[in-house]
Amino acid sequence: MTQESPQRNLALDLVRVTEAAALASSRWLGKGDKENGDAAAVDAMRLSFNALDINGVVVIGEGEKDEAPMLFSGEHLGTGHGPDVDVAVDPVEGTRLLAFGRPNAIAVVALAPRGTMYNPGPAFYMKKMAVPFEAKYHVDIKAPVAENLRRVSKALGKSVDDMVVFVLDKPRHADLIRQIREAGARIQLHTDGDVAGALMSVTPGSEVDMMMGTGGTPEGILAAVAIRIMGGEMQCMLDPQSDSERQTLLDAGYSLERVLTVDDLVQSEDVFFAATGISGGTFLKGVTFTGKGAVTHSMVMRGKTGTFRRIEAHHSFAKLMRISAIEY
Questions:
Q1: Cα–Cα distance between 22 and 108 in angstroms, integer?
Q2: Which of 94, 100, 270, 312 could bond 193 through an S-S bridge, CB–CB 3.0 to 4.6 Å?
Q3: HEC sequence for 167-200
């Protein structure tokens, strides 16, 4: 077996990017203004990326769907010196959660070697099912809801009525919610934040056992990076929510019947992921301002080693503002 010398863990650089976005956007917590909260995160994230020695291209960004001025799909990030990478970003995953002071808004970034991250093109929505490692080979997104619940419960060694399923509280999920309840499982309903939901479903010690339902395609690809690192599985199918979106996908050659796995969404193990909590939650604690600075809580992962870290960082604004162009 050939052994390699330790290489640079870009996830430890990425966490500075997500911390900056979380610190800047959290000033807008509960103020009812998701646009300015998101803009603060975008500005901070982009400035932080400029210091990274990568040659990055945004594959998953704040594109047409969000009408964002920066960090759009196709934008180049980094100094241009370093590895060629695909970049997936969500400066505020859960802008409404931030605007209304609700739990589980997070800042998220992922990197993968150039050309290995699935490009969703005009696909805005996908049906998803995320499960932990124990249930990885036991699910089929095309199978009935009750059957998947039975399979996952058996793999986890618990009964169906012990399980908790993360579902977005959207009108489109009325029938899914009914089927989960009829099968006997319990549900956590969240208004937004399906990256956090997918991650909760694969994180050891989480109270969520799996995630089901339709959410954003960009968010699905972001979550897939972390899920691949953690050994779980997410199966997805493109799920257009309008006739025009459906026709656009068909015209572009996308299949609506294809099941996409984590390996399809990110085709490399040499990936990096970082997320920092913005608003408080059971998944990641939010930003706490101390009067002299702030405390942030993050998770960082590296695919090649499978290393998963939780980082609590204490930021001194008196020192940070001497060298940072970002106003916290």
A1: 9
A2: 94
A3: EECCHHHHHHHHHHHHHCCEEEEECCCHHHHHHH
Cβ neighbours, 10 Å, residue 237 = 17
How far is residue 183's CA from residue 124's CA, in Å, rounded to a whole number? 30
DSSP structural state of residue 258: P
Scored b (16 or more CB within 10 A) or e, 208-231 reads bbbbbbbbbbbbbbbbbbbbbbbe
Q: What is the pTM of this model?
A: 0.92
What does the alpha-carbon distance between residue 3 and residue 198 come to, in Å, rounded to a whole number? 33
Alpha-carbon distances, residue 103 vs 40, 93, 303 (angstroms): 19, 11, 27
Would you say 29 and 279 are in contact if contact means Cβ atoms under 8 Å apart?
A: yes
Query: How does the average pLDDT of the chain come out, rounded?
Result: 92
CA distances from 188 to 24, 168, 180, 197, 312 (A): 29, 8, 11, 9, 27
pLDDT digits (tens, 9 = 90+) for 141-183: 999 999 999 999 999 999 999 999 999 999 999 999 999 999 9
- Other CB atoms closer than 10 Å to residue 182's CB: what's the count? 10
Who has greater pLDDT, 120 or 158?
A: 158
